[in-house]
């Protein structure tokens, strides 16, 4: 496998990002006094149910449905409606790698709430240590990514390939972490590598609005409309791992262009790659 490489994108510098207006004091206090406690209660409640289902549900289907209900509850509490654009491009009855930009902690609930099929996620191994969330990740068959060394990282990706070969789609954030400024960051080649190794399509997903809903290093919500935009699936038939970097560049280009085209703050702005 080629070493994960970082791509470059001509996006606005952090100082030029548009995080949106500050949240009104009403929403700040509403978050602290009402929404955050309810989010914690929902996570604990559904986490406990998921743990119980894990005693007999080895397929992960029931636990995925519980995660869907948990995500729906968090989206209701966010007061932010979601629009799914391009649903017809989803490989609902086929296996694929779905790669999305990573803007916020709310990205995962948004995807669990609206993607209409069972899938597994790749996530940092450190998340497995968080109560309830980590327990769910462990018992529902999600794939931890160990970045302590190059060898462990490759082993993690190969576990993802095995998940794909068993017929389960994967969802991954190729940036490897949330953006601190609301713009697309460089991608690493893990998503492309797994799609090529499993010979399944790579499907771009562009998230809009979740950064403004809950920016990095903030703890109160800024309710607003959200969007999930599904791009044209990119076939990997006949590609080899030598093509992973080029495929990653193509993926980055699609998601960045889609983000600029559809984000209200960037209407009329062209992103060059």
Task: Describe the model.
It is a single chain. The protein has one domain: Glycerol-3-phosphate (1)-acyltransferase. The radius of gyration is 18 Å and the shape is globular. The model is unreliable at 1-21 (pLDDT under 50). The protein has helices spanning 25-53, 61-78, 107-114, 133-139, 150-165, 190-198, 210-213, 244-262; strands at 82-85, 97-100, 120-124, 143-145, 170-172, 202-208, 226-230. It contains 8 helices and 7 strands; from the N terminus they run H-H-E-E-H-E-H-E-H-E-H-E-H-E-H. With 273 residues, the chain is α/β, with parallel strands linked by helices. It has a 7-stranded mixed beta sheet with strand order 1-7-6-2-5-3-4, with helices on both faces. Helix 1 (25-53) runs antiparallel to helix 2, helix 2 (61-78) packs across helix 3 and helix 6 packs across helix 8 (244-262).
- Summarize the main sheet: 7 strands, mixed
Gyration radius, in Å: 18 Å
Q: How would you classify the helix and strand content by structural class?
A: alpha/beta
Number of strands: 7
On the 0-100 scale, what is the average pLDDT? Answer: 86
User: Percent of residues in helical segments?
Assistant: 40-55%
Total DSSP helices: 8
- According to CATH, the homologous superfamily is Glycerol-3-phosphate (1)-acyltransferase
Q: Total domains, how many?
A: 1
Strand content: 5-15%
What is the H/E order? HHEEHEHEHEHEHEH
Primary descriptors:
7 strands, 8 helices, 11% strand, Glycerol-3-phosphate (1)-acyltransferase, alpha/beta, 273 residues, 40% helix, disordered N terminus
């Amino acid at each position: 496998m080629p070493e994960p490489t970082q791509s470059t994108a001509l996006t606005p510098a952090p100082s030029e990002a548009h995080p949106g207006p500050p949240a009104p004091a009403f929403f700040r206090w509403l978050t602290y006094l009402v929404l955050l406690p309810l989010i914690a209660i929902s996570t604990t409640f559904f986490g406990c149910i998921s743990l119980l289902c894990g005693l007999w549900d080895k397929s992960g289907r029931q636990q995925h449905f519980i995660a869907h209900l948990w995500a729906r509850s968090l989206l209701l509490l966010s007061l932010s409606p979601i629009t799914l654009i391009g649903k017809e491009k989803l490989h609902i009855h086929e296996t694929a790698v779905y790669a999305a930009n990573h803007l916020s902690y709310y990205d995962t609930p948004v995807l669990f709430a609206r993607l209409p099929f069972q899938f597994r996620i790749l996530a940092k191994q450190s998340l497995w240590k968080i109560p309830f969330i980590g327990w769910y990740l462990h018992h529902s068959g999600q794939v931890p990514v160990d970045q302590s060394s190059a060898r462990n990282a490759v082993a993690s990706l190969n576990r993802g390939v095995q998940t794909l070969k068993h017929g389960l789609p994967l969802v991954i954030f190729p940036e490897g972490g949330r953006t601190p400024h609301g713009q697309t960051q460089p991608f690493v080649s893990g998503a492309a590598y797994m799609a090529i190794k499993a010979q399944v399509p790579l499907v771009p997903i562009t998230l809009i609005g979740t950064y403004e809903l809950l920016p990095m290093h903030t703890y109160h919500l800024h309710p607003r409309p959200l969007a999930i935009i599904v791009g044209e699936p990119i076939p990997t038939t006949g590609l080899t791992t030598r093509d992973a970097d080029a495929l990653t560049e193509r993926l980055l280009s699609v998601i960045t262009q889609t983000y600029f085209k559809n984000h209200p703050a960037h209407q009329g702005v062209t992103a060059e790659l």
